[in-house]
Amino acid sequence: MDKVFSAPRGMKDVLPDEEIYWRNLYRAVEKKCEGFNFKKIEPTIVENKELFDRSVGKETDIVNKEMYEVKRFTESSEERASETLCLRPEITAGVVRTFIENMQSEALPIKLWYFSPMFRAERPQAGRLRQFYQFGFEILGDETPMADALLIYLSTQILEKLGLKKSLIVEINSIGCESCRPKISKNLIKYLQKYRKNLCPTCQDRLKTNPMRVYDCKVLTCQQVILEAPQTMDSLCGGCQTDFRKVLEGLEDLEIKYDLNPRLVRGLDYYTKTVFEIKDEEDLNRQSALGGGGRYDNLVEFLGGVKTPAVGAAFGVERLILKMKEKNINVGELPKPKVFVVAIGEKAKKNAITLIKFLVEKNISQDSALGRESLKSQLKMADKSGAKYAMIIGQKEILDGTIILRNLEVGRQETLDWKKLEKQIKKVA
Ligand code: HAM
User: Fold this and answer.
1) 186 Cβ partners below 8 Å, 6+ apart?
2) Residues enclosing ligand 1, CB less than 6 A?
3) 393-428 confidence digits (pLDDT tens)
């Protein structure tokens, strides 16, 4: 037997029975983003790998272990040496890349949103896929703490529209700017050195390369060490302290409840100052946020642009859909066809085509299964489609110049006249 193909490991097709969730989610995001005057952006899915080395960070799992390389089967070694392409594991770096390339000279701030696929070769499990969608937003060119608060507000507004607001927890922290970061690192290293033996080998290395990453190590012994570690908030410079206070005040003004989480640093290197995650209360002990983000005031400059402060956040679409299912949130139904056209015999099927054209021109949604022969099997499909009416053409109707209109909900039927169809179709519309 020929090989039977399946979706790649850890990747999932989005099937029609989930469409209603995707549609609700997309529409909620689109509506709220438009309400905040964000413009949609779609950077390329494939990017230069170096972009992520320099933004997300070479030492992070996302870049170090989970990135997919993209290359042509026929690529020459010179071509390959000139640039390495990859599937994007996240999109903020791409948004900044295209901002520098295309938008830097425009009036700031620029507010952008996206709803796009990402790729990370993580160990697959519920809510953790190798191809997944994120929606998110980035504000470029606004350094005020109000931007941070408003971005969190936009996030909670979307989650509220999806019916998820009641059980949400906003966790927030500040990890400082370039002037307080050395002090934060120094205090942390001093503390961690004392417990070096208890740290996993990766975290022992991180002491040299990136000590902040120890905060979100998933290994139990490291988590125990970090419980008593100095808090980033205690070593903030005056400016970062004031800004963080203003972010929190902004959240209070917007009536958003938050929890300070001194251990939250997020897994990507580009963050400065505010970082946050939004979780469901049921998932507090699981490492699975619905979304997260923060400030990245140095990234534009770091990637070769003019220094531009920025803040953003992204949410996992599949994770939100799982959550909506878990909570039995009423998502409504997809629209059903108004009319199902049924035809028995060759001649009737030919007339059915004309009838379908007529319905389309009248903007009446329709469906049919003209590949099926019997009345019974076509009516079965009509029931399955959820159509309110069936319009039936059989041998007799061809001779009479008529069509049977059956109301499938109540089982009643009447005869329409082809010649008077223009007028009679109003019953259906
Ligand atoms: P992130 O925390 O890596 O942040 O991802 C954001 C969200 O994407 C997560 O909270 C989760 O819901 C979802 N997600 C991540 N990995 C997976 C996966 N393997 N399977 C399913 N869902 C996943 C970022 O990506 C940043 N770019 C967010 C940001 C935007 N920061 C500033 N602007």
Assistant:
1) none
2) 90, 92, 120, 122, 127-129, 132, 134, 136, 138, 289-294, 312-316, 318-319
3) 999 999 999 999 999 999 999 999 999 999 999 988
